[in-house]
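Subject: Sanity check before I submit

Could someone independently write out the structure tokens for this chain? I want to compare against mine line by line before I put it in a report. The sequence has 565 residues.
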Amino acid sequence: MKKFIYIAILLVFSAWMVSCDGFLTTDNKSNVTDKEYFSTKSGFESLVSNAYETLRDIYASSSYTTYFNAGTDMYADGRNYINDELHEYETLNPENSVMKELYTACYKGIRAAYAVKHYAQDAEIDEILRNKRVDEARVLAANYYYILVNTFGGVPLMKEYVANAQTGYPKSAASDVYAYIIEELENVVANGVLEKSTAQNGGGRASLESARALLAKTYLAAAWDLDKKEYFSKAAQTADDVIAKRSLVTPFANLWRADYSGDDNEEFIWDVEYDYATATNTVSGGHPWSSFYCNHIGGQEDHGKGSTSAFIATLHALQCFEKGDVRYEVTFMKELPDIVTASNYWYWDWYKNGETFIGIPLKRYYPAWYETEEDIEAWKALDPENRKNTWILPMSDHTRDPQEYMPGEINYEAFVTYSYGGSPCRKFDDSNTGSYSNKTDYRDIHIITLSEVYLIAAEAYFKAGNNENALARLNEVRRRAQLNAVTSIDVDAILKERACELFGQGSRWIDLRRTRKLVEYNNLYNPQIRGRAQQAIGNKLLRPIPQAAIDANELMSAEDQNPGY
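---
Independent answer below. Compare away.
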């Protein structure tokens, strides 16, 4: 009985045991069958909407940062602890609840996507719309399999919706999973029925350019994992097909405006869409991204913003940003007024005041790591009366206690364990709500961006041996950041640009695993296992397949678990 309960939770093996699935178990007061309901246009479109809704289980989850960024060089403990098993590796085991959440969410999404194809054949809609919705669902399923194979390696591979109870699927090799993703996406592209792009129309629906972008990502990952050099060339060409000779023309600050004005830019290729204007629940119906990568800056009674108080940028992450990089001040809030109970000033005043604190007394300033005393004096001179008593909190190895400003230096790792320790991330702020609550962010969540495709192309061309094209793609990203072009390229240079361009958005763990830098970068920069990463990580180069999933699957056994567990 326990086995079948877990199968139902996973939504993998049974179509009818999952009674909690709202889209398949509506209150059937009129004795309408599922087939009859989903054959109507409105019923079928509700099924499609449900498939898209499953993206929120991953991208809008409060565990998003843990899924994709724990145990890396860029994010560390703040006042709260990251999931120690994932961040420090030594105690990571198949019982880890966060990895079980991710595994479950991916298969739930796959099943929801397959339901679209299953019911489409009887839906009372025109053939063009039918084919379009089916191919949208294929892109959704491919994306979930991309996450699974890049996190867990080989996993059970299902290719169709299952209408009857099943007790197991064998674990497929990673090569088979990659082959399936590639085949599906190549077929979608060849079919050509999806819209060319949906970016400037919300970006929420899968399009031909998002299918191509995901295909480029898949080719790149498969090339590394399967040692197939020809896939690097395919990844590069596919990425260039998405780029389509476009430049990165939108200023980085405009792209990431907190008022949503950049959300429908053509550079945002595929999104999880939110809309405050039409939200049924504006109090807690958003997502928590504005609270990510920020330390504690006061409680609800204070005038800050909600924060997770974990996944604070490491000093290494900050030092990836070069002097002059415009992305730094778009990513981090460098100034704070005295935001405490009964204060007249708020964190959100920066937006209300025209994206500046000029005219408002400031209590804290977090200079970038490269700022000199002369730079700080120039900053003070912009508003001398309101900045004369500001505490300067260096983002360096030697800083100060950020809460009480006690005398004496402390290191950066101690610094971020205090309230106000570290410059808050503002890249995902929602200035329209300006709320403390951590689920009142209604900006779109961007799954794939054009700049990431440029970085995919740079990596693929480099690995294919074409340094000229690799540099051209990398330097286009740097040009928009207002940085000088570089003349040499390697994996480290690409990872550095990914750190700055995609801070908070991407999967740093997948990036390090893919490029075989996981141990090296953790050894150098992860504060919890610095200097002993090889010992801590060992063979744990993939996440553990949840033990409950193995136990529930009659065609899997302990031998199917990943190395190191």
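---
OP: Matches mine. For the report I'm noting this point. The chain has a mean pLDDT of 92.
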